[in-house]
Write a structure and sequence with these properties.
Elements lengths: L1 H16 L4 H12 L3 H29 L2 H10 L7 H16 L1 H6 L5 H32 L2 H5 L13 H54 L3 H35 L7
Length: 263
């Protein structure tokens, strides 16, 4: 009787692991993440839509109250619009939540740390690519409608206007990936070392930032750095952002591989 009970209790575990490929396990991680449809697929666009609606209202007020010359000057100023940052900042928060909320949940379903991180990275890249398609379409509509009828810029702000639709898509893709992997880095440090890890991470970021500022100041390299950034253009800056994104992904994995899944 004892032998029968033992055999019966271990059978499901064998069935769960046999016949599964890496693609199956990664797909499972992505599907489990996407059970949070509201947080990953709906809420970002509500936030961006709210920012866009407020921006449209401001443009309408300016158009109705300014003279033609002042209106043109205001239109030029919208090239530096930062409204798209609303969705980028949310994607950073989504990166944090993908780790802090989903990691303990998914390990409870038998997902390994390795599969979790690969699947999460695939999700980040897929979301960045998909969102970039929508943002690029909005940029195209903004161009075709002459700034939604106001001659203004939000999705074609100078930070994102790469001169071609493919380049604009790449810029949107790269910056979103950067924000999501940055959020994941903070999430994994918290999961691995809790608040002490976050404090150490912030101190390290502060030391590196101050050190970089001091080095640029002492070597009088600020003008050269500015010229280099301007020369790169949006696509070049976006391409360089993939370097810290990759570094953050590696650091996050190193922290996550020994993290304890606690809520």
């Amino acid at each position: 009787m004892s032998t029968v009970l033992t055999t019966t209790s271990t059978a499901p575990a064998v069935t769960r692991t046999e016949g599964t490929t890496t693609v199956d396990r990664i797909s499972k991680v992505v599907r489990l993440h996407l059970t949070s449809t509201w947080g990953l697929l709906v809420l970002p666009w509500i936030i961006l839509g709210s920012a866009f609606a407020i921006t449209l209202a401001i443009w309408a007020i300016l158009t109705a109250s300014l003279s033609s010359e002042d209106g043109l000057a205001a239109s030029d100023g919208t090239q530096f619009n930062g409204g798209v940052l609303s969705i980028l900042i949310y994607m950073l928060v989504a990166g944090v939540m993908a780790i802090s909320a989903s990691f303990p949940f998914q390990l409870g379903f038998g997902v390994t740390r390795r599969d979790f991180w690969i699947g999460t990275s695939v999700l980040f890249l897929a979301l960045s690519a998909g969102n970039a398609v929508v943002l690029t379409l909005l940029a195209a509509i903004e161009t075709w409608t002459n700034g939604w009828g106001f001659g203004a810029h939000m999705f074609t702000a100078v930070w994102f206007d790469a001169g071609s639709w493919l380049g604009t898509w790449f810029v949107f893709f790269a910056v979103q990936a950067y924000f999501m992997f940055t959020g994941a880095l903070f999430g994994t440090f918290y999961m691995r070392w809790r608040m002490n890890g976050l404090v150490v991470l912030w101190i390290a970021i502060g030391v590196l930032t101050v050190g970089a500022v001091a080095l640029l100041t002492w070597t009088q390299s600020w003008p050269a750095l500015g010229t280099w950034f301007v020369g790169l253009g949006p696509v070049g800056v976006a391409a360089w952002s993939l370097v810290p994104s990759a570094v953050f992904a590696v650091l996050a994995w190193l922290a996550l591989r020994r993290a304890t899944p606690k809520n």
